[in-house]
Amino acid sequence: MDRNVSVGSGERLLDELVRTAQLASPAELPVVLNRYTEAIGLGRAVVYLVDIQQRLLVPFVEGAPELELDTSLAGWAYRTDSLRVEEVPSGGLKVWLPLADGAERLGVMELNMSTLDGLKLRRCRTVALLLALIITSKRTYSDTIAQRMRTRPMHLPTEMVRAFLPPRSIGTGRVVSTAVLEPAYELGGDAFDHVFTEDVLHATILDGMGHDLASGLATSVAMAGCRNARRSGAELNELVGTVDEALAKWLPEQFCTGVFTQLNMPTGVLRWCNCGHPPPLLIRHHRLLHKALERPPEPPLGLPASLAGTAARQVHDVSLEPGDRILLYSDGVVESRDEAGEEFGLERFTDYIIRSTAAGQSAPEVLRLLIHAILAHQHNELSDDATILMFEWQPPDP
Q1: Mapping DSSP to helix (H, G, I), strand (E, B) and coil, where does residue 341 land?
Q2: Interval 139-162: pLDDT, tens
Q3: How far is residue 379 CA from its own chain's centroid?
Q4: Would the pLDDT of 211 be above 80?
Q5: Tens digit of pLDDT for each residue in 194-210?
Q6: How far is CA 345 from the centre of its chain?
Q7: d(CA 70, CA 274)
């Protein structure tokens, strides 16, 4: 069936896909998907997931080749969040569609068909949107998906920290927040968090002392304390106090640095608290506003009261302008050195973001390219964790 599939039949097939996919295991999902795509004239489907370093597109089912993200047509669809069509030598068309759940990019879907028209195109996009939601729902309880997204074994401390991490990118019509962190398989104490509550974006970056299981434990406890306070409706200074108390109680020998932010999406008011961490950066109109968000930092999280002081944590605020981008980063980003000892540096870091943004790259793509540049600077051998979180406030036109 293709164009001759009636509206009623199309709805029935779509209903069948949704119901069957809900009950399918990850191994069964490609079979369910192909049964549907072939029934509505879209041909055979192949699903590719992006690996955790965003270098490869890995087939969901073993057998198909891996695809280079930076050089393939499939990668172009992923990088630009756009459809790509190519003619195949044997005749017919190969259609590549990005798989994304909101702002989070998951991979791509390949469809093979003889012809493409407006109706088929609409069906292609509907399948891609639905498939992304299905994959997102299943990965929370499927190790198969996690395995497919890895290209080598992961260290235990990294496994623990990654279990706490949210999706790499989240977004609404008013704001997009995206993050990257390396080394992907040997991560120590770095972590990030971003989430929405009502009309507020909460974004956090943490850096645990050391680079071992203990530092990962400190970061995990800090993350849990942050979420527990946030979900209890705590104010920002109370939230930071909760993290302090959690570390002092459960890991008194450990501490970590961090920045906690809250962005009111309707108004653009940003509130933040910096606990011994590099200050947030503000990029406006493709320019870094030097020291715009630099304030005297609070002591690191988890220090004894005699060292940290007993006063409440200081919270700062500023009003953003539409299009402003806020950067949170760990010191491993700017301190990575090449073989000659030259640091990647803050200027190169911010300049890379400004240039990529001016070239029209999306926020997730900007950070993907940037973290690869940082890795290349140190020949893929980082001496410290490198984590970047960036969010952009872009309210709808009045």
Answers
A1: coil
A2: 888 898 999 999 999 999 899 999
A3: 23
A4: no
A5: 999 989 999 999 998 87
A6: 23
A7: 36
Residue 40 exposure: Cα atoms within 13 Å on the Cβ side: 28
| Residues in CB range of 8: below 8 A, 6 or more apart | none
Residue among 253, 204, 251, 256 at smallest CA distance from 227: 204
Q: State whether the Cα torsion 23-28-30-35 is positive or negative.
A: negative
Give the residue among 347, 329, 304 at the shortest CA–CA distance from 384: 329
Alpha carbons 251 and 83: distance in angstroms, whole number: 49
Of 290, 265, 267, nearest to 280 by C-alpha is 290
Q: Are 161 and 220 in contact (CB under 8 A)?
A: yes
How many Å apart are CA 235 and CA 230, to the nearest integer?
Answer: 8
In which residue are the tokens 């009636």 written?
Answer: 6
| Residue 84 CB contacts under 8 Å (≥ 6 apart), including other chains | 73, 74, 76, 77, 95, 96
Give the Å distances, CA to CA, from 51 to 18, 148, 280, 332: 26, 7, 29, 22
- Of the candidates 142, 132, 129, 146, the residue with the CA atom closest to the CA atom of residue 25: 142
Name residue 100's beta-bridge partners.
105
Which of 326, 346, 323 lies closest to 335 in space, CA to CA?
A: 346
- Distance CA(164)–CA(148), nearest Å, equals 19
pTM of the model: 0.92
Query: Residue 144: which residues within 8 A CB-CB, separation 6 or more?
Result: 25, 26, 27
Determine the Cα–Cα distance for residues 326 and 319; give it in Å rounded to an integer: 12
In whole angstroms, what is the distance from residue 156 CA to residue 299 CA? 29
Q: Evaluate whether 383 touches 342 at the Cβ level (below 8 Å).
A: no
Instruction: Give the CA distances from residue 122 to residues 54, 97, 239, 283, in Å, rounded to whole numbers and listed in that order.
Output: 28, 12, 46, 37
Pick from 43, 109, 44, 103: which is nearest to 73 by CA? 109
Beta-bridge partners for 112: 94
